[in-house]
Amino acid sequence: MSKDTGPGVRLQKILSTAGVASRRAAEQMILEGRVAVNGDTVRALGPKADPSKDAI
Prior knowledge:
The protein has 56 residues and is α+β, with helices and mostly antiparallel strands. The protein has helices at residues 11-17, 23-31; strands at residues 9-10, 35-37, 40-42, 48-49.
């Protein structure tokens, strides 16, 4: 997982592409602490992840 800069895709886009939720709903899920990347709970918008390498 990376911060705003660098390679990767924003978490809300990954979740919406996977069909988990719309981007807006995914943003709400992230803010509520309902999303984890590599076992670490994410509670802020902006971090990026690589869906082929990171466990989301």
